[in-house]
Task: inverse folding
DNA sequence: ATGTGC
């Protein structure tokens, strides 16, 4: 397997052996060496072997080894090709939502910020295995949420109908069918609406630190010194179970349809087969659940703001900038063809004027939301026409450089605390959070710059972390 | 990522 330089910040794995197409990975000189002891390039090559795959399979600068497709991978497949649960990921519609306020960070003293953190934690369950505090609502609305997404919550008075235009797909991916979902997945999902989860998921209070395209940032409602809230979570146990179910059953399906699997994690079925359609139907349920999960969490964050500032969220300028997925498969048009784009740790970023942009962002292109690691900046990016080369995709974050285990073994308490700087966090026991240290991640500035300097994205705003809420066990 | 492992 040979990686050849193919222009600035761009390397190509030229088709060889059973690969049907090339793989292209976008990294600069700093990020390239980080792929040394990592199977992600091999995993891109595996994806390039699947039936119907379209040239090229793409790796983002935050790429790292995953299950099946690497995290930071984009695999587009024609109508005659396959769909793969492992190319979407365990956390279906893991994604990011950004909320703006009219508050200025300098007007919010640290004790008030701490109070805000505690109040949010009262409303939003965090940590692995946690169940919804809206137990009755979660159970009652679960089926409607899975079928119709965020709209089911809006109908109950959670948020406003106008919010739907500020969510990818209007908060509902078409084609969801609960009949495709196992009993097991259903049971795990119905009690988890409005929960954060663990691992890299978070609720973060941020300050708009820098406007890189001031006119556009202001048009999107951002201003320097502004307090924003970023929510990063997904479909919890529901999506996890769906991925597990289909990664197993599609090994059999692949055999049935004569598909040779380069690795088990890429288990797949023809997208037009009953097995392939069933995965799409189930995945769409989890996509809708995750959009609704972030929506209900925002509602609860709004309640916390109302408690602390003694003003209704609307009076605080509380509003949705955007909500975007980074683990999803969707049918889209690229190069005049209908293709199924699998994005796993990759964020859609449509260019200005593209007809698939939501109405408020039709002219400018929608914001692409990129969380950094805790303790480092996050970014608001915009799409470009050049990113047609990546099926209009950008990175999804900083990307891991140390596994959880390696982080726990090698990062000391002192190093951890230094890496967090002045950022507040809710976890007392450093061992529970060291695997999320900024030291376990790549440099998000390098990652974003890699794409920006070759015109695959534009930096609109940089957000600085003030305080982060992570999952508590 | 995950009621975190065959």
Result:
């Amino acid at each position: 397997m040979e990686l050849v330089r193919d222009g600035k910040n761009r390397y190509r794995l030229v088709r060889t052996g059973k690969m049907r197409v090339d793989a292209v990975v976008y990294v600069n000189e700093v990020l390239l060496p980080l792929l040394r002891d990592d199977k992600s390039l091999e995993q891109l090559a595996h994806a390039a072997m699947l039936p119907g795959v379209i040239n090229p399979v793409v790796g983002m600068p935050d790429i790292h080894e995953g299950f099946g497709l690497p995290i930071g991978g984009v695999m587009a497949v024609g109508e005659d090709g396959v769909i793969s649960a492992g190319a979407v990921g365990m956390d279906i519609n893991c994604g990011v939502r950004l909320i703006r306020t009219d508050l200025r960070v300098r007007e919010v003293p640290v004790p008030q910020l701490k109070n805000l953190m505690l109040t949010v934690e009262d409303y939003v369950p965090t940590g692995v295995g946690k169940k919804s505090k809206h137990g009755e609502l979660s159970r009652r609305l679960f089926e409607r949420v899975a079928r119709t997404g965020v709209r089911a919550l809006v109908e109950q008075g959670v948020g406003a109908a106008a919010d739907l235009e500020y969510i990818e797909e209007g908060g509902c991916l078409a084609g969801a069918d609960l009949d495709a979902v196992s009993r097991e997945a259903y049971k795990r999902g119905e009690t988890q609406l409005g929960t954060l989860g663990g691992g890299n998921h978070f609720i973060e209070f941020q300050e708009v630190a820098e406007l890189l395209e001031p006119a556009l940032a202001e048009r999107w409602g951002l201003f320097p010194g502004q307090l924003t809230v970023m929510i990063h979570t997904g479909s919890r146990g529901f999506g996890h179970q769906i991925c597990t179910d289909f990664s197993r059953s599609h090994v059999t399906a692949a055999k049935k349809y004569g598909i040779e699997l380069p690795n088990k994690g890429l288990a797949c079925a023809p997208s037009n087969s009953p097995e392939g359609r069933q995965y799409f139907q189930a995945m769409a349920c989890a996509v809708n659940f995750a959009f609704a999960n972030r929506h209900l969490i925002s509602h609860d964050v709004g309640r916390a703001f109302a408690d602390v500032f003694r003003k209704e969220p609307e009076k605080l300028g509380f509003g949705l900038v955007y909500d975007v997925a980074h683990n999803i498969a969707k049918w889209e048009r690229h190069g005049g063809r209908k293709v199924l784009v699998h994005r796993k740790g990759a964020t859609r970023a449509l260019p200005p004027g593209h007809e698939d942009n939501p109405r408020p962002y039709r002219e400018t292109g929608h914001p692409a939301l990129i969380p950094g690691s805790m303790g480092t900046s996050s970014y608001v990016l915009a799409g470009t026409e050049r990113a047609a080369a990546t099926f209009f995709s950008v990175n999804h974050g900083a990307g891991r450089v140390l596994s959880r285990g390696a982080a726990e073994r090698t990062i000391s308490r002192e190093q951890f605390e230094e890496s967090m700087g002045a950022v507040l966090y809710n976890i007392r026991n450093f061992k529970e959070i060291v695997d999320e240290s900024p030291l376990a991640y790549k440099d998000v500035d390098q990652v974003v710059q890699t794409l920006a300097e070759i015109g695959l994205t534009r930096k609109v705003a940089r957000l600085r972390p003030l305080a982060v809420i992570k999952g508590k066990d």
About this structure: Residues 67, 89-91, 94, 128-129, 188, 197-201, 234-237, 239-241, 243-244, 327 of chain A lie near DNA strand B (CB under 10 Å from a C1').
